[in-house]
Amino acid sequence: MESALKHEAKAVISIAATIGLGWLAGQPVRGEPPVEKPAAEKPVEALSKLIANAVKASMVLERETIRPGETIDLAVTLEISRGWHTYWNGDNDSGFPTEVKLTLPRGLTAGPIKWPVPERHLADGDILDYVYFDQCTLLVPITADSTFAAEFRGEIVAELSWLVCREGCVPGSATLKTDSPFVAPLMPSSKPKADKVATEVKAARELLAMPASKDARVTAKWEGDALVLGFKDSEALTFMPSADGARVADPIKTATTSKAKEPLTLRFKPDQEAKPGAPDKPVVGFLRAKVAGSAKPVNIEIKIDQPK
Amino acid sequence: MKSSVLFGSILASGLALSALSLNSAAFAVEPPAGKPTDKAEKPADKKAEKSDKKAEAATAKVGETAPNFKLTDTDGKTVDLAEVGKGKVVFIHWFNSECPYIVKQYSTCSTIPNMVKDYAGKDVVFLAINSGAPGKQGAGKEVSAKAKSDWKMNFPILLDGDGKVGQMYGAKRTPDCYVIGKDGKVAYIGGIDNNSSADTAGDKNYVKLAIDELLAGKEVTTKEAKSYGCGVKYGAK
User: Fold this and answer.
1) Which of B16, B100, B231 lies nearest to residue A112, judging by beta carbons?
2) Same domain, A9 and A142
3) Which of A154, A172, A206 is the last residue of a domain?
4) Secondary structure (H, E, C), chain A
5) What number is the ipTM of this complex?
6) Is A99 in the same domain as A244?
7) How many domains does chain A have?
């Protein structure tokens, strides 16, 4: 029982993250300071503490200013201890995708999370999940509407919950705060100040998939009820279905191939919770293609409606 | 003043869909040749089910007789499903005392202990199955026996170390739940309830709903629901 409780220990961390660089002089840092490691750290930590620290969460805004009508990204980063993994919002057999709940000042709204492309993870017993190792940065688009004004500046609060697993699993949560962006000056004569884009956001954007419409090598063809999904001159192909789309039948066998130039032939399971007469969910997910001459795979964002 | 925006990863769409999204019109997807299939027929579902069945080879299916098994519990007793289930409603769930989603059911939310109390004296049998392979996290007699004692469980934890019964039932998570009617047919497969967090019980306990309907001689309304939990710790093939 003790060990079970240890495994269950939640890490609740309140961290106030300041927005990158260039704060106005004299601007106080809001909230609590980041958790610092004590100077004389014990070399051997209790197992529960190790497990509780399997994820460290942090948050930073892309830039410090925003214009009404503009959208900037908020980067929410989970640093994951080696060997552990967190979950994508995929059609996972197990686990729990990271959740972000934002509280925003008036005039700011958040859009859907932009997830980095995960790894396909097949565990003993044919348990298939889509996970992140080492680090996972979620980008949340934040849009300012016309009512967003300087006097409403306040905090952005993010409540995170996740599941991090290795052999066992540990649920975790954190509350992060950051100051909301400043309203950028609207004087038409002046050039907009070139705010430096936070490196975390730049790096995270590299890990997003390319939309299929932007890569002519992607091919998709319906043959009856099967979707034949290919990538020109691929050496290997994998499709990772999202939890928001149609469920793939037998993904272990059919959603991946290591045969050169072979496309994937995907069939889809009926949605057990769909109301009768409701249209089938579209095919949503990531297509990962290994191509000759490139160490890095190509990652494509797929969203394809099912035929009526 | 402040606006609360809730968008769990499960609720909101998982990919950037704005200008970057593609649909059949923007991205050249070849539609199926010939006449579009009649929506009412849904031949696609039948095909998908067939290939699904063949490929996965799990044999527990709603509406069909529950596959029988004989397993030993943590006290060394042998339990035969058909024997203990004769004339009773059986609730089987996959179990790993070290999984936070099992701790949720037994300790944090007491969902299962409360159900045991509710159904005391009624024709309901509870069975927990641990399909963890030797050496895997949460597997083996000792760990489960300790949980049985700590959580004061009055029903068997069956040990399925070679994973055969788990694979037969297609169990992937702890707790994956199966409810079997008095006729020996599987009446429900899925999650215990509708809240997949590690600490909050759902407001719909699908298992309890199914058991209540079966005890009342009614057909189960929700026969399948999404499940959640830690992966079952099967061994390598």
Assistant:
1) B16
2) yes
3) A206
4) CHHHHHHHCCCEEEEEECCCCCCCCCCCCCCCCCCCCCCCCCCCCCHHHHHHCCEEEEEEECCCEECCCCEEEEEEEEEECCCCEEECCECCCCECECEEEEEECCCEEECCCECCCCEEEEECCCEEEEEEECEEEEEEEEEECCCCCHHHCCEEEEEEEEEEECCCEEEEEEEEEEECCEECCCCCCCCCCCCCCCHHHHHHHHCCCEEHHHCCCEEEEEECCEEEEEECCEEEEEEEEECCCCEECCHHHHCEECCCCCCEEECEECCCCCCCCCCCCCEEEEEEEEECCCCCCEEEEEEECCCC
5) 0.78
6) no
7) 2
8 A C-beta contact, residue A288 and residue A298: yes
Same-domain check for residues A39 and A172 = yes
Query: Within this chain, do residues A162 and A256 fall inside the same structural domain, yes or no?
Result: no
pLDDT score at A298: 96
B49 touches A: beta carbon within 8 Å: yes
In the stretch 150-169 of chain B, residues with CB closer than 8 A to chain A read 150-151, 163, 166-167
Is B234–A125 a contact, with Cβ atoms under 8 angstroms apart?
A: yes
Q: Number of CB pairs < 8 Å for A and B?
A: 242
Same domain, A194 and A230: no
Is the full-model pTM beyond 0.95?
A: no
Farthest-apart Cα atoms in chain A, separation: 68
pLDDT digit string, tens, across residues B136-184: 999 999 999 999 999 999 999 999 999 999 999 999 999 999 999 999 9
Residue B181 is encoded by which pair of tokens? 């009617």
Chain B residue closest in CA terms to A286: B15
Percent of chain B topping pLDDT 90: 75
Query: What domains are defined for chain B?
Result: 59-231 (3.40.30.10)
Residues 60-89 of B with CB under 8 A from A: none
Nearest CA among A281, A278, A248, A283 for reference residue A266: A248
Cβ-Cβ contacts under 8 Å, B101 against chain A? 169
A66/A132 same-domain check: yes
Average the pLDDT over each of A97-101, A103-107, A122-126, B216-220 and give the range with the smallest value: A103-107
Domain boundary among A206, A237, A256: A206
Are A64 and A111 found together in one domain?
A: yes
d(CA B134, CA B54): 29
Whole domain around residue A150: which residue ranges?
2-206
Task: Kindly state whether B59 is in contact with chain A, defined as any CB-CB distance less than 8 angstroms.
Answer: no
Angle between helices B111-118 and B206-215 (to 10 degrees): 10
The answer to whether residues A34 and A141 belong to one domain is yes
